[in-house]
Amino acid sequence: MPSSPPNNFKRPSRFSMYSLKRFFRFWYLKLLRIRESPHNVAMGLSLGVLVGCLPIIPLQTVAAVILAFFFKCSKIAAAIGTWITNPLYAPFVFYGMYLLGRAVIPVGKKEFEPEDLTLLNIVNLGWDFFLLMLAGGVIVGLTLAFLTYLVSVRMVYLYRQKRSLRMQLKRLRER
């Protein structure tokens, strides 16, 4: 029979900062350890970021993986890249995209409501609203995808180089 924890033991809450940090570290390492070239990983991640900025909320991961298939890059990285618009701050990101789209394309006078963040609601609001969100999303997405590629290709390359050196040192010590 397992013993009970001591009285001063405090079990971490399910959504503690520790578990959030652990979650991001897990996916960060998973991304870096994908067994494809740094270019393929970075391309997949940047495609995911681009698609993650589009107002096709329930279909982002599927669309990113399909694009990664056609571009012959990492599908896992593409799926991870779509998490740029997670539920915590998606309303803020999409509101920014709406404002940017409204500044670029002067159509429609519909106001943005956070509860409108489903594809069906966006389409029901009208194509003008969807076009504004899409224009803003493409501008933000292309910019972020380019920056993501530049940073992630270097990050994956450096991680692998460092890991290779560690493995070589380990082999030398074992001799």
3D structure, described in words:
The relative contact order is 0.13. It is globular and about 70 Å long. With 175 residues, it is mainly α. The model has no long low-confidence stretch (mean pLDDT 81). It is built from 7 helices and no strands.
Distance between the termini: 45 Å
Q: Strand-and-helix sequence, N→C? A: HHHHHHH
Largest sheet: none
User: Quick one: overall form?
Assistant: globular
Q: Roughly what percent helix?
A: 55-70%
Give the topology, please.
Elements: H1 17-32, H2 38-52, H3 60-71, H4 75-81, H5 90-104, H6 119-124, H7 127-174
Offer a concise description of the structure.
This protein is mainly α and 175 residues long. The protein has helices spanning 17-32, 38-52, 60-71, 75-81, 90-104, 119-124, 127-174. Helix content is 68%, strand content 0%.
Supply database-style keywords.
mainly alpha; 175 residues; 7 helices; 0% strand
